[in-house]
Amino acid sequence: VSGNCGGEFTSFPMIEWRKLHVGLRGIGMVEKILFKEIIENAYDGLVMVDKEGYVQMLSRAYADFLGIHQDSVIGKHVTEVIENTRMHLVAQTGKPEVAELQKIGNDYIIATRLPILNQGKLVGAIGKILFENVGQFKCRCLQYRYDCSICCNFS
Asked: Which of 14, 40, 76, 104 could pair with 23 as two cysteines, CB 3.0-4.6 Å apart?
C-alpha cells in the first residue's frame, strides 16, 4: 500500500464498554447501544487502546481469534493481550501503520493501526485485522488474478 494515510481518524470515540458514556457525550443512549452492537457484530477484529496503550475495547471477533474472553482484557496493557503488537506505539507516536504483517501464534495477520485524534489531540489508537491469516489474503489475490484474466480474455 502506498500513499499518505495521514489525517485524523475520529470515527471511533474513545470508549470503555463498561463505561459506555465516556467519550460519547451528546449522543443518546439508543445511539450508544447501536454503536456497540455494530462493533460487536462486525466480522472484523477491532481493538482500541488509550494513549498509554491500555485496551479500551476489543471486539468479540478479535477476542475469539485470540482465544480469550473480551471482558478480561479491558484495562490491560495491549502488549499483555496481543502478541507482537505495535498498537501502543501508534497510540504514542500518532503514526499510522497500514496493512502491516504481524505474527500471532503460528499465523501471520495483516493489520492496520490508526491513531485516534480528538480535536487535534492524540488520544489513542484503533487497530483492525484485515486478514486473520496471510493464507486468506493469498487465496483472495489468486481469485482476483483469475477473475481478471477471464475478464481480459473476453475483451
From this structure: 14
Question: Which contacts of 117-121 are long-range, i.e. CB under 8 A and separated by 24 or more positions?
Answer: 117/8, 117/9, 117/10, 118/10, 118/13, 118/14, 120/8
Q: Are 85 and 79 in contact (CB under 8 A)?
A: yes
> What does the pLDDT look like over 107-152, one tens digit per residue?
888 899 999 988 889 999 999 987 665 566 667 667 767 777 777 6
Nearest CA to 57 out of 13, 121, 114 is that of 13
Instruction: Quick: pLDDT tens for 40-70.
Output: 766 678 999 999 999 998 988 889 888 999 8
Q: Which residues of 83-107 are buried (b: 16+ CB within 10 A; e: fewer)?
A: eebbbbbbbbebebbeeeebebeee
What span, in angstroms and rounded, lies between the C-alpha atoms of 48 and 57?
A: 5
Query: pTM of the full predicted structure?
Result: 0.68
- CA 23 vs CA 37, 91, 117, 118: distances in Å: 17, 17, 12, 10
